[in-house]
Design goal:
This is EAL domain-containing protein. It comes from Chitinimonas taiwanensis DSM 18899. The chain is an alpha/beta fold. The chain is built from 6 helices and 7 strands; from the N terminus they run αββββααβαβαβα. It has a single domain, classed as Alpha-Beta Barrel (TIM Barrel), CATH 3.20.20.450. Strand 6, helix 5 and strand 7 form a beta-alpha-beta unit.
Amino acid sequence: MRPDTQRQLAQGIASLPAQWVAGFPLSLDEHGVVGRFFKCELRSVFVPTPVGALAMPRAELAITGPDGEPFPAERLFQLPSGEDGLLKLDRLCRLIHALNHFIVAEQALPLILPIHPRLFDYVRHGHGRTFARLLAHFDLSPARIVLEVPQGLPQSTLDGYLGEGYTLRTALDVALNAQ
């Protein structure tokens, strides 16, 4: 990453409104953007995923627990108590991935970001609005993001994401591409 890009990214991270990521620390090291949640270190891994004729990157979490050992993502998403904690953890993970993909790795391909399925039990309106504001804080567009959502969501939920400019990919899309 170029020094000027690194400086701008560090300034962007430092000026993030705390309420957008619940004050959970984000930092920048030699490998990219790192998040912290309940003493766990959150990093990005990008897995090439077939989407039509393309192999697009799909973000996954690489988590190191407080003991320095790998920590399962399923367990991480059980740590937050209440809906607010889960919403902010999911948003934090998506932000880490977007920054590592578009700014640190300077990738141009759209990024597939999975959304934790429990999230949809809590968000009632404005799906994707706060994350779109986070992306805008770093001059990134939701149009560069493909959100992976579960099948069967209400159309109003899907419309909320589409209205913010995201592309959606459902479990049905994933199954069809695997064939």
